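ok trying this again, last paste got cut off
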Amino acid sequence: MLETTSVPSDRYGAAAPPLDASPGSSADRARRETITLDGIRRPVADELEAFRDYFREAMRSDVSLLDKVTRYVLKQKGKRIRPLLVLLAAKSCGRVRETSYRAAALVEILHTATLVHDDVVDEADERRGAFSINALWGNKISVLLGDFLLSEGLLLSLDHGDYDVLHALSDAIRRMSEGELLQIEKSRLLDIDEETYFRIISDKTASLIGACTRAGALSASGDEREADRMHEAGEKLGLAFQIRDDLFDFDPESAVGKPLGLDVQEKKMTLPLIHALSRAGRSERQHILKIVGKDDKDREDLRAVATFAEERDGLTYARERMHTLADEARQLFADFPPTQARDALLDLTQFVVQRER
């Protein structure tokens, strides 16, 4: 699941900062005082405009119903974080090429397809504050739209011989499906330990983020070593992103738009709760699991689970893991030559962990 909210400058304004400050230095900390998503986008602002043309063209269909549905999808103002990652990675590894634009379009097409299918699986009526596709057109149209988008994405790469990019994204889609199925399997039994949790979020979330940075690197230079480093950095960024999202579930003050206890309501075991349970006695653990396993939880149930996670240091532990992963991603991004695109990736890791939505 990022708007143009500021976090604790906008570094790409009138006076650009030095690009050689190492992560953790005083100069680096000063540059991170006011990071915005608009500022992060600035080094590839022109490229993002060109990407939007690729994306709109790839979403068109001669079938009137399909074209109507895809136009509805295009009207939804997503954050386009994944194509942003592709373009920043490409520019950090050389320059943005035609292959980079196609890779960015492929990423967003595949991501959109997975969201459409996810809403069917989750029986969700809303997506980003608007009606979901399945709420408006039903599950059958939603599944077929997702299939159409997947095929369009594959053809976009195959028609231009972008096989390295296609391989990276295909592997991510496979892992996302496996992660979703593993979560469904384990959630039924409320049987998820920390190792299983990280396997699930690595496959469900981090795999696509890593594929974005890998695809960007491959589209720019074709250098496998650079692509491997970008991939590792992207995966760590994706893990930190998901943990931050999980923490929102326990924060009634967050502006993320995610209702308090939504994950608990859906019987999803996330890191704060998993760690808290590992520190609880047998009777307390059984009591909390009984609440999580209920089909009809009220606000008191959700508040009890949130309080338990806080008191058993689940939130503190999750924040520590999130920051460690973000720092590791920053160090990997920092290995690339100093450019505004590289520095935007550094800022994005900070933005992810400090975001309020």
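PB: full thing came through this time. Residues 272 and 317 are 7 Å apart (CA to CA).
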